[in-house]
Amino acid sequence: MHAFEAVLLMLGMVLLSNVLNRFIPQIAIPLIQVVLGMMLSIFTTFDYFDLSSEFFMLLFLAPLLFNDGVNVDKKALWREKKAIFTLSIVLVFVTVGLLGEFIHWLIPAMPIAGSFALAAALAPTDAVAVSALAEKVKIPHKMMHTLEGESLINDASGLVSFQFAVAALLTGTFSIVQAGISFVLISLGGVLVGELIS
Fold it and tell me: Is the Cβ–Cβ distance between 186 and 156 less than 8 Å?
C-alpha cells in the first residue's frame, strides 16, 4: 500500500508539473519535475519504497514511449533508417564499451562488469527528453526525425547491454551469442507488438 500511495503522489506531481508549465512556459517540464521531486523527498515521508523494475516500466516508461511512438513520422523514420540504425545500435554498444572501460579506469575498485552496467544505463538517449528539447530549441526536421527514431529504438540495445552486464557481474560469465539473440528477440518483439497495437 505504501508503494501504491507513493505512485499516486508521483503521478499527481507529474500532473501538477504540466499545470505549472502552462503558467511558466519558460521553465522546461523536466526541471519543474526535479524541483517537485525534491520537495516530495524533503516534506513527505516517502523517502524510500520498493518498486519493481517491471512495474516501473509498465507504469511510467511504456505510456511515455508509446505516446512518442504514435506521434512520430513513420515515413521519415524509414528514410533515415541508416542513420537511426547506426546511432541506436552501433553507437550505443560502442558507447557502452568505451564508457565502461573509462568508468573502470576512473574507479578501479568497481568490477568491470559493474562499470559496463553503469555505462549501459547511461548510454541510450531518452525519447521524452528529445521531445521536450524540441519544444524549446529549433532543430532541423531531418535531424529531429533521426533523433526521435534513435531515441525510440536504442532502448533495446541499452536494455540488452545492461541485462548482460548485470548477468556477467553476478555469474562471472558472458556470452556474445546469447546477447545477440536476446537483442534480436527484444527488437522483433517490440516491432510485432507495435504492429498488433497499431
Answer: yes
